[in-house]
Amino acid sequence: MKFFHKLISTWWLSGTARKMPGTVGSLASYPIVPIVLNNRILGAVIILFLFLVGLWSIGNYIKHYRTSHDPKEVVIDEVVGQLLTIFLVSVLLNLEMNSSLLMLCFFSFRFFDIIKTWPINLIDRNIKGPLGVMLDDIIAAILAYVLIGAFYCSLSLYAG
User: Fold this and answer.
1) CB of 112 closer than 8 Å to CB of 143
2) Segment 38-43 long-range contacts (CB within 8 Å, at least 24 positions apart)
């Protein structure tokens, strides 16, 4: 069971990459993107399921491997955050996803996940354990969505 928690928490070991494990983990979420985009209900269920499984798995991973509260190899949170960013942009902005927009989602999410602006830094400092690990990426996804929304809104104002 210990290795099972490692597989889930590190998103099939993608988080064990020597360099930039969070970025590798975010990229490793992309095989699921077509499923999330093709069925909104199933997409929401997948994201919620991965969030809940991530909470369970991270807690067990930290306990079994005796690591810090937010080990760098744990990337299930990046997977959930990346998928949530894409889902929010697709559904709430009602934008047709293409490779450029997917790249914008990727880089926007990674930007907020790495720099940890307010309120991400508050969560990162004050909420420990699996919930803190997952929540900072959820907030990064929401901020990435807001940034992309503002960008597209300003484009439409400028064009119109």
Assistant:
1) yes
2) 40/87, 40/91, 43/83, 43/87, 43/91
Give the C-alpha separation, 34 to 31, whole Å.
7
> How far apart are alpha carbons 116 and 102 in whole angstroms?
21
Q: Say if CB 75 and CB 11 are below 8 A apart.
A: yes
Q: With 0-12 CB in 10 A as exposed, 13-18 as middle and 19+ as buried, what is 160? A: exposed
Indicate the DSSP class of residue 30.
G
Task: State the residue for tokens 């889902």.
Answer: 87
Whole-model pTM: value is: 0.95
Tens digits of per-residue pLDDT, 39-75?
Answer: 999 999 999 999 999 999 999 999 998 887 789 999 9
**For the chain, how are helix, strand and coil distributed in percent, rounded to 5?**
80, 0, 20
Q: Answer yes or no: are the C-beta atoms of 67 and 114 closer than 8 Å.
A: no
* DSSP label of 31: G
Helix (H) or strand (E) holding 113: helix 99-115
Among residues 115, 57, 62, 106, the alpha carbon closest in space to that of 84 is found at 106
Q: How many other C-beta atoms lie within 10 A of the C-beta of residue 135? A: 19
